[in-house]
Amino acid sequence: PPLGIMVEVPAVAIAPDLFTQAAFFSIGSNDLTQYVTASSRDDSRVATLNDPSHPAVLRLIGQVARFGREAKIPVSLCGDMASEPKHLKALIEAGLTSLSVAPARVARVKAALAEI
Question: Of 32, 51, 78, 110, which has the fewest Cβ atoms less than 10 A away?
Fold first, then answer.
């Protein structure tokens, strides 16, 4: 099967051109957000900083999506952000065209996308 790469750390999102051998990129929103914002969803002392809509996170997502389009490498996004309707408009604006969501959330995401 084709081998892709998870984009979960800022180093990959900042320099995706170093990974052009990958057949696809899958942005892991949970880990990318945690590393970019220096926070953790599991640590109540810093959990409020863990915001996937932070401009730095969205810029990195957009950068990877743009690089993928230019290099003809498919890019998708997985993680909690993909399942949250409040983030969908920003993800579309960042250039994403593919999301990976849990089966139980597909209907909710499709309905939210239809409204955008």
Answer: 110
